[in-house]
């Protein structure tokens, strides 16, 4: 009698409970790895802020170069230089 009661608890636990537990956590991990709407909104705001800050830097550099013709910007831009390790080291040395 006791063996039958134990079997009625153990068998459903092994064949139903354990797979459900594993699949439940796999599903949670997969949904946690995706971007939520809040994450996407935050990334859009950060991109917009970075774009505005870059525009401001361009404006400041333009104003400074008007006052001082020998001024040259020390940041890498897509139009002027490659993003190579050599250029990054050169910029770090000039700081």
Automatic annotation (TrEMBL):
Keywords: Membrane, Transmembrane, Transmembrane helix. Residues 67-95 are annotated as: Disordered. Residues 76-95 have a biased composition (Basic and acidic residues). The chain crosses the membrane at residues 6-23. InterPro entries: Phageshock_PspB. The keyword Magnesium does not apply. It comes from the Bacteria. GO terms for biological process: phage shock; regulation of DNA-templated transcription. This is Envelope stress response membrane protein PspB. It comes from Sphingorhabdus contaminans.
